[in-house]
UniProtKB/TrEMBL annotation:
It comes from the Bacteria. Residues 17-382 form the Glycoside hydrolase family 57 N-terminal domain. Keywords: Carbohydrate metabolism. Residues 564-739 form the Glycosyltransferase subfamily 4-like N-terminal domain. Residues 414-521 form the 1,4-alpha-glucan branching enzyme C-terminal domain. This is DUF1957 domain-containing protein. Residues 750-909 form the Glycosyl transferase family domain. The keyword Glycoprotein does not apply. It comes from Paenibacillus germinis.
Length: 944
């Protein structure tokens, strides 16, 4: 009989277990911050001391484990604060006394009494542990790092959300200060960093490289959507072009623990998070029984048994992951499982026990996956693929949404102003020469403290709390207090009168980062007054040209050459028509490839701003970034001597900037509502996104001094759904420039035969445009006019669905996609009837285009569209959404070309009378002048 030797399972991959330890800075001996003191005491009792216990037991049993901790500079300052160390010792002693009293109180409750006794024992164990390390938990963490059992990485100094910082100097100062602070505690530089909230935006990697950081952690989407797409997917780190390695977080293992619905901590056998008596005491007697009022007593033994099951389940799933990846990967895969450290113990009482079980199983069972630290992995695999990471965070929707939305957006204007002021002062005083009455050493103290106060105001915790609607007043107070102290110090430096008593008080109260250096904020390069203006001479010329008369600033997310919808063309035509009437008009819009960042275009000053965003950013979230850029630019313009006499905001996308600039500087605001979310969805606002947009539209109309709409239909709609008084809303239709008739007829497109009777639609391929109704009507039309051919120009989210719907019609339907101006004109000239079958249309500038080309027109009898023509005189109005009505009117146009041509001529005359931009601009200018109280003698420069 042959003896078979059982082979050791082959190693399939590695696990990086990442615990992020963070608390906001607690102001030293501030009696107003009892809330934060409580956070610290609970975290020490339930998380950090229990984790030290776990590491002690594993080491005592010779278990070779690996854990990675990111410990933020702010929580390090709390761990090392003698005041808090003494108070925490007293806190534990008080808990022991309360636990003893609980045993007396619960004598007649046998189900709960054992738990009270267990708590009394537990608090005594923690006090003994705390005293054994002399209150210095940092030394214990350092000890285990020196042994190679754990790796500690740093984070930004005050956990500021880096992608929303305006300047490179501010990001650099947060990182350099953190690196310097880490070295003070651990006698070495950090190899890695946990970017706060995993917030990444391109360029941060370059700053990390300069700071000596070798690697950082990113949300999974940063690598999953990197460019080029990484061949190793999420199974291995990716190196950025600046040579810093990014470890992507694993969503599967994260969700198994953190998921609110299915995560381990929600199991009914585990202890409930909420306290049963005074929350400050932390006595919890019940398990996660359910959402109702009925509660079952906590049974520790059952909970620990469940932790064993969950450790087995977690390990088995990681083994499957590693085995799956290892089959096709050219190296051992690494799974990065990240969690907030306080999940283990504070939120999930049994979490430390689960962690210890996992470490033991991975070591003793000799399974196919092994714990590792990031540095060890990079030593084994120093070469990685290179790619450009996607902008992302591990927050909601993998974006900046949590830290930049309605509840907290207001803080960024103030933070960005403080950034610029800190850079200006640091650059001015970088050589520390005597500043008037201030000595160099005294000046340095004041500037260093100003830097501390600014960094503390930048903490991402405050915006997070505002978003979560948790302790909001506390968060607002902290932001305002730190910024107030910052500006107070800066004002005193500017006046050369620093109050030494106040400075000393602030140094004692906010005493983190003893090695902070204000010079970290010295300007990397001299900033121009307005970055998008190419040179100082052009800047001076612009100010001189615009200083004598009112300046109108239009806010629009699109402007030529950027064309997405009709808004771009409408704003373009109106702005140039106003300039022809001697108005000074600026357009604040977004950048476009190939277009200059600033130009004077046909008399209009066009400012095109870059918007920071990732490739997969949802349009709604992108608008937040756009508003941030617009607000910053207008503030910079204003503060550098530029005039802003009136704001004209176009639709909800620019509402935040319009409101901020209006309220900050008292500038009159006009809002044009081109369409409403309510109307686009026929009054059905089902999704959260739809409701958010509707609210922004209401907010914009509420803030505006005047509201412009393009039709009487829209006036009734906005008045009704936004509860606006009729005299606040004015109707100003869209217009069009009519070109001189082109004597030479352009050739037909190749795909249109001479005998074809062309039905033309142009516009966005979305539901409310009604193209689906037109496709349903087409067979009825072809039955009467066999030569009928439908051309659909444009693109949009319904294109695939519409192509499928039209497939059976063969060559009778042609999709052109987006068309340029020349091809659009060619299509119009080839057209026999233009059709606009919209279900909802506030105006319909496409109708004016058809009228300008003298083409017969069939449109839906809906909204503002119905007001443009007279039925049977200038064209036909079909019943909206009615297939037979649309088919009959189109067929009649095709069968009676002479009558159709007469209606087209009548429509052209109507266009000349009512829809020319010169006339529209005159009416709008009259409204502007009522708001600005400016009555010049008008000299029209050109005829539109």
């Amino acid at each position: 009989m042959i003896n078979r030797i059982k082979q050791k399972p082959e190693l399939k991959g590695y696990l990086v277990l990442m615990l992020h330890a963070h608390l906001p800075y607690l102001r030293h001996q501030d009696h107003n911050d009892n809330l934060e003191e409580q956070w610290f005491y609970e975290a020490m009792t339930e998380t950090y001391l229990p984790l030290i216990e776990v590491m002690n037991r594993l080491t005592s049993d010779k278990i070779d484990f690996r854990l990675t901790f990111s410990i933020t500079p702010t929580i390090l300052s709390l761990f090392s604060n003698p005041y808090l160390q003494d108070k925490y010792h007293a806190y534990l002693s008080n808990l022991i006394g309360l636990a003893d009293k609980e045993q007396v109180r619960l004598q007649k409750k046998p189900a709960l009494l054992p738990l009270a006794k267990r708590y009394a024992e537990r608090f005594r164990e923690l006090l003994t542990l705390y005293e054994s390390c002399k209150g210095n938990v940092i030394a214990t963490f350092k000890h285990y790092q020196d042994l190679g059992r754990i790796e500690i990485v740093t984070s930004a100094a005050t956990h500021g959300f880096l992608p929303l910082m305006k300047t490179e100097e501010a990001i650099k100062a947060q990182i350099i200060t953190a690196v310097r602070d880490y070295e003070r505690y651990f006698d070495q530089k950090p190899r890695g960093i946990w970017l706060p909230e995993c917030g990444y935006t391109p360029g941060i990697d370059r700053i990390l490289k300069q700071a000596g950081i070798q690697y950082f952690f990113t949300d999974s989407t940063a690598v999953a959507f990197a460019s080029p797409q990484p061949a190793r997917e999420l199974a291995a780190p990716l190196m950025t072009p600046y040579g810093v390695t990014a470890f992507p977080l694993d969503p599967e293992s994260t969700s198994q623990v953190r998921s609110a619905e299915n995560g381990y901590p929600g199991d009914f056998n585990y202890r409930e998070y909420y306290s049963d008596i005074d929350p400050a005491a932390g006595f919890k007697y019940y398990r996660n029984t359910g959402k109702g009022s009925h509660k079952e007593p906590y049974q520790p033994e059952r909970a620990l048994e469940k932790a064993v099951e969950h450790a087995d389940h977690f390990l088995a799933n990681r083994q499957k992951q590693a085995a799956h990846w290892e089959r096709w990967l050219d190296r051992k895969p690494v799974i990065v499982s990240p969690y907030d450290a306080e999940l283990f113990g504070h939120w999930w009482y049994e979490g430390p026990h689960f962690l210890e079980l996992l470490c033991r199983k991975m070591f003793l069972d000799q399974q196919t996956i092994k714990m590792i630290t990031p540095s060890e992995y990079l030593e084994e695999y120093p070469i990685a693929a290179v790619g450009n990471l996607n902008e992302s965070s591990w927050g909601r929707n993998h974006s900046s949404e949590v830290w930049l939305q309605g509840y907290n957006e207001w803080i960024y204007r103030h933070l960005h102003q403080a950034e610029e002021r800190m850079i200006e002062l640091a650059t001015k005083h970088q050589h520390l020469s005597r500043h008037g009455k201030l000595s160099a050493s005294f000046l340095e103290r004041a500037l260093n403290q100003a830097a501390r106060e600014f960094m503390l105001a930048q903490s991402s915790d405050w915006a997070f709390m505002m978003d979560a609607q948790s302790d909001v007043d506390h968060a607002i107070r902290r932001v305002k207090e730190h910024l107030g102290c910052f500006h107070h110090l800066c004002d005193q430096v500017d006046r050369e009168q620093v109050d030494e008593v106040l400075l000393t008080v602030l140094e004692e109260k906010d005493n983190c980062f003893p090695d902070i250096q204000f010079r970290d904020y010295v300007s990397i390069q001299k900033l121009s007054p307005i970055p998008i203006i190419p040179n100082l001479k052009e800047w001076e010329t612009l100010l001189e040209e615009t200083k004598h008369r009112p300046n109108v600033f239009m806010l629009a997310w699109e402007y030529p050459p950027k064309h997405v919808g009709g808004l771009s063309r409408a704003v373009h035509e109106l702005s140039e028509a106003l300039v022809a009437r001697d108005e000074i008009v600026h357009i604040i819009t977004t950048s476009y490839d190939g277009a200059p960042s600033f130009e004077k275009m046909n008399g209009v000053y066009v400012h095109r701003l870059p918007v920071n965003h990732s490739g997969d950013t949802h349009f709604y979230h992108w608008t937040f970034e756009m508003n941030l850029a617009m607000t910053d630019h207008l503030v910079r313009w204003k503060e550098n001597g530029g005039r802003i006499d009136l704001l004209h905001a176009h639709d909800w996308m620019v509402a935040h900037t319009a409101r901020e600039i209006k309220t900050s500087y008292g500038i009159p605001l006009v809002a044009t509502i081109h369409a409403t979310e309510w109307g686009r969805n026929q009054g059905n606002l089902y999704s959260d996104l739809q409701r958010k947009i509707h609210h922004l539209e209401w907010q914009l109309t509420y803030e505006a001094n005047r509201v412009f709409v393009c039709s009487s239909y829209m006036k009734e709609e906005v008045g009704r759904i936004f509860n606006l008084p009729p005299d606040k809303v004015s109707v100003h239709p869209n217009g069009i420039r009519t070109q001189k008739p082109n004597i030479e007829t352009m050739n037909r497109p190749d795909l249109v035969a001479k005998q074809d009777k062309v039905i033309f639609f142009i516009g966005r391929l979305v539901y409310e445009k009604g193209i689906q109704i037109l496709l349903e009507a087409l067979p009825k039309i072809i039955s009467q006019v066999p030569q009928a051919k439908l051309i659909i120009a444009g693109s949009g989210p319904m294109e695939g669905e519409l192509r499928s719907k039209a497939a059976f019609l063969g060559d009778r339907v042609l999709f052109t996609g987006f068309v340029n101006d020349a091809y659009r004109t060619q299509l119009y000239q080839s057209t026999d009837v233009c059709v606009i079958p919209s279900l909802y249309e506030p105006f319909g500038i496409v109708a004016l285009e058809a009228m300008a080309h003298r083409k017969p027109l069939v449109l839906s009898d809906t909204g503002g569209l119905a007001e443009i023509i007279r039925h049977g005189v200038d064209g036909y109005k079909a019943l909206p959404g009615h297939v037979d009505s649309l088919a009959w009117h189109i067929t009649d146009m095709l069968l009676q070309p002479k009558q159709a041509a007469m209606m087209a001529d009548s429509a052209y005359q109507l266009l000349q009378q009512h829809y020319q931009w010169g006339h529209i601009a005159q009416n709008i200018q009259n409204e502007y002048q009522k708001l600005t109280h400016y009555q010049p003698a008008i000299q029209v420069k050109a005829t539109i």
